[in-house]
Amino acid sequence: MTPEELEAARGRTVPDVVADGLDVLFCGINPGLLSAATGHHFARPGNRFWPVLHACGFTPRQLAPAQQHELPGFGLGITNVAARATARADELTAAELREGGEQLAATVLRYRPRWLAVAGVTAYRTAFGERRARIGPQERTIGSTRIWALPNPSGLNAHWTLQTMAEEYARLRAAAGHHCWSGPG
Asked: Which residues form the Uracil-DNA glycosylase-like domain (predicted)?
């Protein structure tokens, strides 16, 4: 992609990958420009979402972003807190994240996944007004859907390694009772 093509994707949205009754609906903060340009969630090569999803046992092989349509077959889906594509998540306003939290709650109530997994605890805190939220399971539910705050898989989140993220995602996989295809736990 050229810089011009990426910039043209600013403000676009990426369709949700969702179905009724999923085990886990993963939720990014918002689409990056490459995701918006390609229409695929977590599309930037440095993003660790797809490698972590496989390493922790959620998928039998590492999927490419273009294979996101296969996720519902594994009981998984993807959405975002905020729909608007930006170069960096810090371009979003707190009001956008809070509005996104309301829209996310409506999506969860409609599709009823067993777990909502928000990949980015800071965005979760803002979207749901949970200032003290930490990584891990949350007390809040949306209907019968439980919530887990996960580390953001962005390459910018250097505090979490591929291994430590896979361990946290595996904790969610085990709590969700999701089949383990590979990896720890």
From this structure: 15-170
- Spatial distance between the Cα atoms of 40 and 16, rounded to a whole number of angstroms: 9
Fold of 3-176: Uracil-DNA Glycosylase, subunit E (3.40.470)
Q: Yes or no: say if 175 and 47 are a contact pair by the CB < 8 Å rule.
A: no
Q: Which residues contact 95 (CB under 8 A, 6 or more apart)?
A: none
Hey, what are 106's tokens?
């409506």
For residues 81 and 138, is the Cβ–Cβ distance under 8 A? no
On whether the CB atoms of residues 63 and 50 are closer than 8 A, the answer is yes
- Location of structure tokens 């999927």: 63
Structure tokens at 21: 């009754």
DSSP state of 57: T
Residue extents of the structural domains in the chain: 3-176
Q: What pLDDT, in 10s, does the model give residues 49-93? A: 999 999 999 999 999 999 999 999 999 999 999 999 999 889 999
CB count within 10 Å of CB 130 equals 17
Please count the residues of the chain.
Answer: 185
Angle in degrees, 0-180, between the axes of helices 121-128 and 94-111, rounded to the nearest 10: 90
List all residues 6 or more positions away from 20 whose beta carbon is below 8 Å from its beta carbon: 111, 112
